[in-house]
Design a protein that fits this description.
It is built from nine helices and six strands; from the N terminus they run ααβαβαβαααββαβα. With 205 residues, the chain is α/β, with parallel strands linked by helices. The chain has two domains: 47 residues, no CATH class; 152 residues, Periplasmic binding protein-like II (D-Maltodextrin-Binding Protein, domain 2). A six-stranded mixed sheet has the order 2-1-3-6-5-4, sandwiched between helices. Strand 4 and strand 5 form a beta hairpin. The longest helix has 37 residues. The chain is elongated and about 90 Å long.
Length: 205
């Protein structure tokens, strides 16, 4: 061992590197592979836990084809709440389901886990009345005014002139889904995922 150490000290820098590689290349390769594997696992775990946008579908039946197309075209990692029901006059059959849906919406917003609501006209009116939604015109003007002219004709206004939703019925993937009623999008009033919200709005230009 001492003899090997003395020999090693007498080598040039290049010879030392060659010596280390000759004797320890398996160890080096295994270590590099392990480090790469660990970094890959950590990156995957972090990516799996990352969400760019939370979307709730209210009074709108959507399948994976619709949600996958929307997230795929926008490039966003989207977490979706599906099959939520909110009606003006729920019957005995769906009263509990409608109540659970409204509670789910409220809980998601309180936990900062909801950014966008997509639904029919009643769903959007309900969300606006509950003060869940921003004025989209104000939101776009403050964050990306270049979008305003193209989105403005799609605005849904309340009695006070607030633009609380936009009509997205004519855009993919909703147009091809063949809904019989208009589909609207509203933005939840929060400072979370602003870039994701703007990216989604650009999909409907």
């Amino acid at each position: 061992m001492k003899e090997r150490f003395r020999t090693f000290k007498q080598l040039s820098a290049k010879q030392k590197l060659q010596y280390i590689w000759d004797y320890y290349k398996i160890h080096i390769i295994v270590t590099v592979v392990l480090i790469c594997a660990i970094f890959s696992i950590v990156k995957t775990v972090k990516r799996a836990g990352a969400v760019d946008l939370y979307i709730a579908y209210v009074n709108v039946a959507v399948d994976n084809k619709v949600t996958d197309a929307l997230s795929g075209s926008s490039g966003l990692i989207v977490s979706s709440y599906k099959d939520l029901l909110i009606t003006e006059n729920p019957s005995g059959e769906n009263l509990e389901y409608a109540y659970a849906s409204s509670m789910k919406l409220m809980s998601a917003i309180s936990a900062d886990k909801l950014d966008v609501i997509i639904g029919d006209s009643y769903a959007m009116s309900y969300a606006n009345g509950a003060e869940y939604l921003v004025d989209i015109e104000d939101f776009v003007s403050a964050n990306n005014p270049q979008l305003l002219d193209k989105l403005k004709p799609l605005f849904l206004l309340d009695d006070n002139g607030k633009a609380y939703a936009i009509d997205i019925s004519g855009f993919a993937p909703f147009k091809s889904a063949g809904y019989s009623e208009p589909i609207y999008l509203g933005i939840v009033a929060s400072d979370n995922h602003v870039d994701g919200k703007l990216t989604l709005l650009r999909e409907f230009m």
